[in-house]
Structures are given as C-alpha cells and as structure tokens.
Amino acid sequence: MKLTPLISAFVLLLIFSVGQSQTQFKAVPADGNSILIEGTSNIHDWEILAKDFASEMDLVIEEDDLKAVNAINLSIPVKSFDSGKGKMDKNTYEAMNADTYELVSFTSTSPASVVEKSPGVYQALVKGELSMSGATNMVSIPVELYKTQSGYTLKAEQGLNMIDYEIEPPTALFGTITTGETVNVIFDLTHYKS
C-alpha cells in the first residue's frame, strides 16, 4: 500500500511522456544556408558571410508538433568569414583576435517554449551565451522556426555591438575608413534530423 503513490506517480510520468521526444537536428554549410553579418562604415555599408559553421538544435516534439527548443549550439570559425575582399577579411580576423580566439560560439542556457504563429511556423526567444574574441555575454535571440518536410528552418536577426566583445571596429587606409561599432547578424539555417 505504501508503494501506491510512487506507482501512481510513475504511471503519470509514463502517460505524460508518451508521444513526446527530444530530437536532434543539424545544419551544415550548403546552398540556402547562410549566416550573414551586415555593417556600416563612413564610406559604404558592408557585409561578410560565414563560409563554415556547425549548428545543432535539440527540439521537443509531441505528436509531430513542436513544443519547445531544448537547446541550440552554434560555432563559427572566425577565419571562415569571407567578404570577397582579402584586405577586409584580414582586418576582420585581426580585430577579432582570430589567431587566439578561433571560434565564435553560441550555447543556449535554458529551454525555450514556442508559440505557433501559423501552421508549421513557430516563434521562440532563445537565451544563451555568445562568445567571441575572448568575451562572453548573455543574449536573447528571437527566432522563427519553419517546419519543412525533413526538418526545421531557423531564421533570426540579432544586433550586436562589437565593443561589448572587446572588438575594436576595423579601420583601413590609416584610419580614413572606419566601421560602425554595431552589426546585424542574419541567420537562415535549415536543420535536418540527425
């Protein structure tokens, strides 16, 4: 008789768990996937693209319906940033101390609940630690997840101030060209079940 409450709790846990699973999804550099950084300077706007990255999402799915983002992990080799302009890339790597701090990384720190905006389209606020150039800050990134036939596409935009990460905005031509200290990072990554 003393085991009855324990057994009841176990049965309830099993009932709650039925149909719910945590599923891992991965995105890789490929056509259609992109991480783009947009910035400004006193001459013209600029952009630089991450040519390499690793991104994983752990999603809670119940009866084929997305319920939560359990975890997101993203890493980008700094020297994979490519603007198509060698001098600009070199200045970027120097400003980000790429020889010492080789990666930009984001790791979520807690699960995020989702809201279904429309069929197959979900919104979440993902909180986590963003690290680059030896500095780490907590950020909250609003994301949208779009259900596809074989996974989910994550779309997000996040503004960042380089000074917050101890990055001196790059300059060129003896300081006559200066970049703004804020940038906008745009994510468009389709993750497939791993």
From TrEMBL:
This is YceI-like domain-containing protein. Residues 56-190 form the Lipid/polyisoprenoid-binding YceI-like domain. InterPro entries: Lipid/polyisoprenoid-bd_YceI, TTHA0802/YceI-like_sf. It comes from Psychroflexus sediminis. Pfam families: YceI (PF04264). Residues 1-23 form the signal peptide. Keywords: Signal.
